[in-house]
## 1
Amino acid sequence: MTKKNSKIISWATTIGMVLIAVGVLMPLLGYSIEVYRWIFSAGALIALVGRLMNRYDGESLRVKRLYRIEVWSSIFFCVAAFFMFYPYGAGRDWFAFILAGGMILVYTSIMIPRTIAKERKQAKK
């Protein structure tokens, strides 16, 4: 993957995550506009495409696995987008999937740099 493609994918993922945050905050802050569903759904889809395109080219199997786990967080966000539009579900099903995806993102955002640093340290020995 070229450096230019990597930057585009990184920006797309970031924009998707910002749209997800805006889509979550709008109903929580009391905005009654129904646009938040579409904003969140667009962000979830953009984040999913960005995560699918982002791949780790290194040798570490654990880091590759962590990148795949990041894809699952975006899948959870897409499921949450589905439940935002699903009329027969409970009122906050979408929020449970957002929390699950967020927890996965917190875990991977801590573990990826930590694992890379640990393996670099071991490689120097």
## 2
Amino acid sequence: MKKEEKKYDFSELTIEEGLKRLSKITGEMEKEDCSLENSFDLYEEGTALIKYVNSKIEEVEAKVSMITKDGSEVPFTEGQES
């Protein structure tokens, strides 16, 4: 029987907060007294958090790439292709 995948809500996290949480997760996993079950839970959360942080970074990169050479900003709309 496949374990049900947990849903995480990171929508309120900034990129910086997400990176701090990833650092904490890594630290917790490195502890000698971290159980295998807890390691799996932390790994699952970390993997989901990496996906979230990467998507937020991609959003920022897309916004930055929309800035024109003269310094004016072109409005960014989600899903817009360059």
## 3
Amino acid sequence: MGFIESYKHLEKLCGEVLNDDRRISAYIDEMINTPRGSYLVRGWADDLKQLKHYRWVRNQIAHEPDCTEQNMCEPSDTEWLDDFYSHIMNQTDPLALYSKATKPRPAQKPVQNHKPESPTYTYSQPTYNHRKSSPQAAGCMTFLVGVLIIVVAIVLISGIL
């Protein structure tokens, strides 16, 4: 394909991907209005510069007398456009990479390399001073022991100890 054919091909794809009649101009505007794009995506600024340049070249060929594909373009220009088309198709273009870089990720639990053995705890009944305990006191003590067991289990599960 020649430069103009490759440009039209890319222009059509940009219009379809962005659902915008401005096509390559819409892609360029999206890049310009994307915060931190050049920070998060390698080659962002170079791709933006190339797209602007090729849009200008296309406009020169289309609107200026004596400007032709032959005197305005090199074979490498067509190759760049075709490569950029492939990047969009493979979702490795700047906007797709930015979207991947800024997509919220689910929180991951820390991976444990080994499972620590759970210590075995033995609980004995509390001793009393030979006084008769009331049923309420026994119930309260049972409740407290249950709470203690739950707290120890939570601590062990979360790996705090």
## 4
Amino acid sequence: MLQTDFDVKKMTSFRIGGKIARMYFPESVEEFVEIKEKEPEAFVAGNFSNILVSSDGYEDAVICTKKIDAIRIEGNTVLAGAGVRGTKLSKLALEKGLSGLEFMIAFPGSVGGEVFMNAGAHGQMIADVLKSARVYCPEKGVISLTNADMQFSYRTSICQKLPYSVLEAEFVLQPCAKDKIQEKMNENLSFRQNKQPSLTLPNCGSTFRNPEGDSAGRLLDEAGVKGLKIGGAQVWENHANFIINEGSATSLDILELMYEMYSRVKEKFNVELKPEVRYLGGKNEKEVELCRKLNLL
């Protein structure tokens, strides 16, 4: 359950990251609570799909929820642990003839992170199908929140405003013909293949959130960042809102490139982009300073 000096690099979507001093892998909600009570400041992560871990490592504790992965389906209700991969859940829903999770197909993240950020794509999002979530609250322990309690909005939830950790999610889906569900999944997969880099090119998905009424990709494209490189990090040549690790990138390379992208958009459009990527580190002063400028801390 506890591993010290855990080398996290192979777990992260960016394939970047040093050693984490104390890494916990609870297999149940109860184990998670025990660890949180012992390590109240522990950072909570899932599959590290949108987390940039410092190449210099992290000196504190991290709780990884990937093993909290139980799934129960009753009628059109689906209960999933935080560690369940979005792609797996989407495919299970298809097998049961249930619609509402097609957008998760090919998502690299897990349910906990997807609820945390109200993930969505192709006209569907978590807020449309979530009935309730069990979350850990430092003051009260494990509590249940309704959809309204979650305060969902674009790419955010109450879990980004308060120190809540998503442990389980309950979804209510709609019965639908399997061929219709498959058709929508195929459309989503085709879109991702054409518009987003393959996970064989290490990346964390969209780098910045879309500003209200606009597209981060459009702003970045017009700011001329496509193909821009710093060290081993490069803005993907096919879409300006993706950074790929060419194989040798460090976390500092990624942050310096993010700041250059941010700065060019701010200078050209007077728009301050907000990162979708989260940062885990703190030992490197240059990184900390860049994170402050990017509002990542």
